[in-house]
Structures are given as structure tokens and as C-alpha cells.
Design brief:
Order of helices and strands: EEEHEHEHEHHHEHEHH
Oligomer: single chain
Mean pLDDT: 89
Radius of gyration: 17 Å
Distance between the termini: 35 Å
Largest sheet: 8 strands, mixed
Shape: globular
Number of strands: 8
Strand content: 15-25%
Strand order of the largest sheet: 1-2-4-3-5-6-7-8
Number of helices: 9
Structural class: alpha/beta
């Protein structure tokens, strides 16, 4: 995907004004509103496989965070709170009083901050391959962030997919977005801010946690801690799953999401 572009990259993408940002979104389907929050190295297109399996009765919205995809934002440092507020501004722009949030990896961190800052805007949380703290992820994340984009594309396959799921990827991870050095620096700065272990008990909305037991980037221990500390949480494990379970196991996760949201499986 080209960097620093302000035009929609494909006909499914539109641009909305959300707060002070011009935000790229994909908005499809109708029914229960579900906002998909992408990972630290991805963009709104990360959820192609999951979206295809979610089925009818769900309005599925994915969007580009700051310094991602086609979203236009000021070239200044920002915080996890800013990213949480950005998502709420998007809900405002779409006239949604509240929505269910599904966040993967870093997107799950953003979703946690939204639930803590704006609980009235969150109907439920679905936390996929994520963590309550950078503490759990630091060493492996630092290893990936130290690589060039091309090196990361090659190396990330082992981090993201099981041996059985790798052949379909052709040796590369297609959901990794190429960013300019200044954008990468801002993203890396904000990723290291994530820490909510001591606030998990404050998350009051129903929460589904989905995690692979062999995830090196967001170790399974973080998922167990979230289930223990979030009052109304349930954990579903994918045995042997690694970090890209939302892509590799999209059909299974979509079924769990439909059940969790109470959408008929028809």
C-alpha cells in the first residue's frame, strides 16, 4: 500500500471526518455494529478474512488508526488516550451511540483503553491475540521493530502463523503496512505506553478473550491474567495458535463472535 496518500485505496474504502482527523474506513453489512481495531503493524484491510466469515446481521466497520493506511493526522506524538478518543470520535461521525469493539494485538490494547475511558460507548469487548501490558510483549516486539519492513515481512511469518498455516502465506505476511520512518517512530512510541494491568477490574463490559496458546508476540499468560481480572470475561483458547489467529482461524473466531454478540448463526 502506498504511504502518505489521502485518497481511498479501493472502492470499498471511504473517508470520514472524525474529530480532527480524516479517517479511512471500510463499512459493510447491517445490524449489530462491530468496530474492528487493527494491530500495530496493520491497517483497516487486516480483517479481510474475518469479515468474510462474520456473515449477516452485523455491521462491520474497520478503520485506519493514526499513521496507518489512508488516515490523515498531524505529525506529532500521541498517546494511547488519543487513540481511544479517536475511536470515539469515529463513533460520533457514524452516529453510533455505542458499538462492540474487536481489537487484535495492539488494536486490542486500544480497545481496552476505550473501555476504560469511555465505558458508555462500548457495548462489549472482543480481545484477540492481545495483552494488558507491553511488559508481556516487549522482547519479541522489539525484535520485530528493529527490522526493516522487508526483513519483518519475511521473519514475521514464523511469529504469526502455525507451520500448517504458513504455506498459504507464501513466505510473507500481507497485513504488515509499510510506513515512513517518522510514522514508525510515532507508532513505536505509543505501543510502549500500554499498561493497564492494575485497571483490568475497572472494565465493566462483557468481554470475550480469544488467544493462541503459542503466541510469542502476546504470550498466553496475558490472556489468562485478563480473564482473571476482568469481571465479566471469558477466555477461548486456540491450541497451538500464534499471533495471526484472526486471519488463520477466521472461521472459528467468526463463529465465536456471532455467538458472543447473540447473532443468529443463519
Amino acid at each position: 500500500m502506498p504511504d502518505d496518500t489521502t485518497a481511498p485505496a479501493d472502492p470499498t474504502t471511504s473517508i470520514v471526518r472524525a474529530g480532527d482527523l480524516e479517517v479511512g474506513i471500510i463499512d459493510s453489512g447491517s445490524g449489530v455494529p462491530l468496530v474492528l481495531v487493527h494491530g500495530g503493524e496493520s491497517d483497516r484491510t487486516q480483517f479481510t478474512a474475518l469479515r468474510a466469515h462474520l456473515g449477516p446481521g452485523i455491521r462491520v466497520i474497520s478503520y485506519d488508526q493514526r499513521d496507518s493506511g489512508v488516515t490523515v493526522n498531524p505529525p506529532v506524538l500521541y498517546t494511547m488516550s488519543d487513540l481511544a478518543d479517536d475511536l470515539v470520535h469515529l463513533l460520533d461521525a457514524l452516529d453510533l451511540p455505542s458499538a462492540h469493539l474487536l481489537g487484535t494485538s495492539f488494536g486490542g490494547a486500544v480497545a481496552q483503553h476505550v473501555a476504560l475511558r469511555h465505558p458508555e460507548r462500548v457495548a462489549s469487548l472482543i480481545l484477540v491475540a492481545t495483552s494488558p501490558s507491553y511488559f508481556f510483549e516487549g522482547a519479541a516486539i522489539d525484535e520485530l521493530l528493529s527490522m526493516t519492513h522487508e526483513e519483518r515481512q519475511r521473519s514475521a511469518v514464523d511469529f504469526f502463523f502455525t507451520p500448517e498455516g504458513r504455506p498459504a502465506q507464501g513466505g510473507r505476511v500481507s497485513v504488515l503496512t509499510k510506513r515512513s520512518p517518522d510514522k514508525n517512530a510515532r507508532r513505536e512510541h505509543v505501543i510502549r505506553q500500554h499498561e493497564v494491568r492494575d485497571r483490568l477490574a475497572e472494565i465493566s463490559v462483557p468481554t470475550l478473550i480469544v488467544h493462541g496458546t503459542e503466541d510469542r508476540l502476546a504470550p498466553y499468560a496475558g490472556a489468562v491474567l485478563m480473564e482473571q481480572q476482568i469481571p465479566n470475561a471469558q477466555l477461548k483458547a486456540i491450541g497451538g495458535g500464534r499471533h495471526a489467529i484472526a486471519q488463520e482461524f477466521a472461521d472459528t473466531i467468526a463463529l465465536w463472535v456471532r455467538e458472543f454478540l447473540g447473532v443468529d448463526a443463519t
